[in-house]
Amino acid sequence: MKYIIETKNITKRFDDFTAVNSINLKVPKNSVYGLLGPNGAGKSTLISMLSTIKSPTEGTAIINGYDIIKEANDVRRSIGIVFQSRALDDILTGREHLEMHAALYGVPKDVREERIEEVLDLISLGKKTDEYTKNYSGGMKRRLEIGRGLIHHPKLLFLDEPTLGLDIQTRESIWEYIEELKDNNDITVLLTTHYLEEADNLCDEISIIDHGEIIKTGAPKELKSELKSDTITMTLDNPEKLLSLIKNKSAINNSLITGDELRLMVAKGENFLPEIISIANTNKLFINTIELKHPSLEEVFIKYTGRKITDGAKTAGGKR
Amino acid sequence: MTEIEGIYTIWLREAKRYIRYRSRIITAIFTPLLWLLVFGMGLGSAIRFGGTAGGYQQFIYPGIISQTILFTCISAGVGIIIDKQYGFLKEIMVAPLSRSSIIFGKALGISTGAIIQTIILLLLSFVVGVPMTPLIFIGSLLIAILIAIGMSGLGLLIASFLDSMEGFNLVMSFVVLPIFLLSGALFPVTGLPSWLEFIVYLDPLTYGVDALRNIIIGDSVLPLEINALVLIFFAILTIVLSAFIFTKKEQDLM
User: Fold this and answer.
1) Do B96 and A106 touch (CB under 8 A)?
2) Residue range B180-213, pLDDT digits in tens
3) A26: DSSP letter
4) Is residue A57 part of a domain?
């Protein structure tokens, strides 16, 4: 079994709105896989189906070798899930949440204590472990939820927008935590996000999802290099002169002059940079500053969806 | 085995919640005492009550115990909506556990709270001058457990049709109050106009009040076995029905 998730034309319709449209997704084992898309793209609905919360209108999926429709309980035992919205009881302690989860998922009694300690170690709640969760900070609640999802040693962990609404430091600590998790455990993480830097930093592979369909799949690095659009920005006294000398080079896709600034869109910026400088030198053109920028995932997203991720989905059906 | 442990786990959480909200326990004891002392004594002095030897206060004592169980169980059952709003219901619903076990565990947990209140009220029987023997105590508790499970099941059943706590007042006005007033908790159910008598016997709590009255003050309309049978039937019916609806509506609940 190479893939932990394999969906087969999975579809979810609400009345006349198609939230997920015939998606075929393959998630390799022991990877961190990202579903990237604007709000309302269908990410949460897809995760709800994969975690057996919602049943698909059409199609199905195989998770850890089990069918999500016919073998829902086996699927449930194979997965851990951290919902987008909070799912904690404010009047139970952190430890009690873990104990309860372990019992509900049938973790054998003799290893339960050990597992709980192991998770508590990982999520470092410190002395708040035995306090009610209503006294926890946003980051602690998140860590507890992630830790809880790990108690029964799932093969697959779903994280639905794990850092939504968290401040930058907390977000970074959650990222570190997820990194640690995948390095030290036999686990696959499927996360949804609409934070591009999150997908970029964490995921081995991503799928861009929009209007309920997968538009593009690949490793973030590959997707970015496929764009062939490094940007070289220079300031110099006579940008027109330099441009006229180099504009016939095949590496240049596009160029733009604003005042004393020359901007070039090129395929392999790092290879082209020395050439420009030597041309400028031989023609006695003095370059004041020069900067090379690789494309971000943002540009990848714009290329495949035609808009920025923060613009949201045009036909968003709201949260279901 | 896993199912039993699941039921136990859900029960445990519910019981912990009950004990930790101390203010709820205090109100739940204070309200019935108000009824017994103020209403019972006030009305008892105003009317010539020939129903029982002990007077009106003693007559409504079993009724007020039933009322406490009814209010506690229905409001806690409907309270599952709060779990839904806080998202905690998802965590339970996504566990590899049958929906029936979830409902049963929940109903047992809620009933535990109601039983704790019943015990306190039974221990306070001297307030209305009712003698309490171990036999009366245990018999009353058994009946109270049956009433509690049935009413928790009813609360959960109602909750499965509600989306938010906004509907709670509606439930109080259209379900809880009629069940309470029609149960004969406050008046004898004999000698009523026949249309009212008919409705009174449709009310499941009537059988609970009658059974408790039988055990506590030795005064009842129906035999204890009949009352107990109706209560058992009602408890099974509401639990099975809510488990069924929860399985059916599972998708909307998460």
Assistant:
1) yes
2) 999 999 999 888 999 999 999 999 999 999 999 9
3) E
4) yes
Buried b / exposed e over B121-132, threshold 16 CB at 10 Å, is bbebbeebebee
Check whether B149 has a pLDDT greater than 80: yes
Q: Is B7:B105 a contact under the CB 8 Å cutoff?
A: yes
The domain boundary residue, chosen from A189, A218, A247: A218
Q: What is the per-residue pLDDT for A319? A: 42
Cβ atoms of A87 and B87 within 8 Å: the answer is yes
**Whether B247 contacts B162, CB under 8 Å:** no
CATH for A254: 3.30.70.980
Q: Is the separation of the CB atoms in B112 and B25 below 8 Å? A: no
CA–CA–CA angle B64, B68, B74 (5° rounding): 140
Mutate to test the interface with B, among A66, A91, A104 (most CBs of B within 10 A): A104
CB-facing half-sphere around the CA of B81: CA atoms within 13 A: 17
What residue numbers bound the domain in which B55 lies? 2-253
Chain B contact for A85 (CB, 8 A cutoff): yes
| Torsion over CA: B204, B207, B210, B212 (sign) | negative
Tell me, yes or no, whether A303 lies in a domain. Answer: no
Token code pair at residue B106: 């929940």
- Give the CATH number for residue A177: 3.40.50.300
Chain A partners within 8 Å of B17 (Cβ) = 89, 91-92
Give the distance, in angstroms, between the CA of residue B140 and the centroid of all CA atoms in the same chain: 13
Which among A127, A156, A151, A195 is positioned nearest to A50, based on CA atoms?
A: A156
Instruction: Answer yes or no: is A309 within a domain.
Output: no
What is the interface pTM, i.e. ipTM, of the complex? Answer: 0.85
Which residue range(s) make up the domain with A130? Answer: 3-218
- Report the pLDDT value the prediction gives residue A85, as an integer from 0 to 100: 82
